[in-house]
Design goal:
alpha+beta, Jelly Rolls, nine-stranded antiparallel β-sheet, 5 helices, 19% helix
C-alpha cells in the first residue's frame, strides 16, 4: 500500500536535516580517527564500498563503491552515501518517526498486533551512481517467525521517480510464499521467479510512504539523474514473533519443494 503525504513538508525537511547532521557528525569522527573504517577488497557491486562505523553503537554508513569519503569534504561525502543503519537513536527526529502513529501505528494495523521496531535503514541513491537494489523479499534477510508478522515502512524524503530509483513491486505476490534467493550483485531472487509483465513502479512525492509485508518482492533501479533520492526504511515485527536460528528459519522460509530460500542459506 502506498500513500501520499504521510509526513508533512516540515517533517520531511526535519528528517532531511537530521540525516545530514548525523552523517556529517560520524564523518567528522572518522576524520579524527574516532570511527572504524572497513572495506572488503574482494567484494564487488553492492557488497563493496567503504563502511564507516561508530565503535560504541550500531550506527554505520555504507558508501557507494568507488567513493572514498575521507578524500572529499564532509558535505560532499554526505551526498554519496548508499545506506545508513542503526541510526534512529542518533537523533530525536528519528526516534519520533519510528513511533509515529502514521508509521508504527499503520504497521500495527497491517500485521494485526503491536509493532516493534526491528531494524532501520536510510537508503540513498546518489546522483548518477546510485546502485540498483535487485528483486528481493525482506524476510529473506531476517530470522523472525511467523513470516506474516513482519512488515516494512518505506518513506520517501525526495520525490521518487522511475528515473531516480523509485520502488517497483509485484502486487499480490506476498501471498505466493518464499522465493529462492542467491548472491549476485547483492542477495536477490532467482530471475526465473520474476515475471516482468507483472512489475508495477510506485513513484511518489517526498513525504509519501509504502507499507508492505516482508514477503512482498520489490526492487529499486539505479539513479540515472542528477538528483539524489533518499528514503527512510523502518522494519517492524509483531510482538508475537520469535527469533530462530538460520537453519530453523530455512525450514520455514523455503520454496514449495523444501529448498531453503533465505540469503543466509543461499
Amino acid at each position: 500500500m502506498a500513500f501520499e503525504q504521510v509526513l508533512t513538508d516540515n517533517e520531511v525537511q526535519a528528517a532531511r536535516n537530521a540525516l545530514s547532521e548525523i552523517t556529517c557528525r560520524l564523518m567528522e569522527m572518522a576524520r579524527r580517527g574516532e570511527a572504524e573504517l572497513r572495506e572488503n577488497p574482494n567484494a564487488t557491486q553492492n557488497y563493496a564500498g567503504v563502511q564507516v562505523r561508530r565503535p560504541d553503537s550500531d550506527f554505520g554508513i555504507h558508501f557507494e563503491p568507488g567513493v572514498d569519503p575521507l578524500t572529499v569534504p564532509v558535505e560532499k561525502a554526505e551526498l554519496h552515501f548508499r545506506k545508513l543503519h542503526g541510526y534512529h537513536q542518533e537523533h530525536p527526529t528519528f526516534v519520533d518517526l519510528t513511533k509515529h502513529p502514521r508509521i508504527q501505528g499503520f504497521i500495527s494495523a497491517l500485521i494485526g498486533e503491536e509493532a516493534i521496531l526491528k531494524a532501520e535503514m536510510a537508503l540513498s541513491k546518489p546522483p548518477f551512481i546510485g546502485s540498483e537494489k535487485p528483486w528481493h523479499q525482506d524476510n529473506a534477510y531476517f530470522n523472525w517467525l511467523p513470516l506474516n508478522k513482519v512488515a516494512t515502512a518505506w518513506i520517501s524524503l525526495d520525490d521518487a521517480t522511475i528515473e531516480n530509483g523509485c520502488m517497483h513491486v509485484l502486487p499480490g505476490k506476498h501471498k505466493v510464499g518464499p522465493l529462492r534467493h542467491h548472491h549476485t550483485i547483492d542477495s536477490e531472487i532467482l530471475p526465473d521467479r520474476i515475471d516482468p509483465t507483472e512489475v508495477v513502479p510506485v513513484p511518489m512525492k517526498a513525504g509519501g510512504a509504502m507499507f508492505f509485508s516482508a514477503m512482498l518482492p520489490h526492487q529499486t533501479s539505479p539513479n540515472t539523474t542528477a538528483e539524489r533520492r533518499r528514503a527512510l526504511q523502518f522494519q517492524y515485527r509483531g510482538e508475537s514473533t520469535v527469533a530462530v536460528t538460520k537453519e530453523e528459519f530455512g525450514k520455514v522460509f523455503a520454496e514449495v519443494d523444501g529448498t531453503a530460500a533465505s540469503c543466509a542459506l543461499a
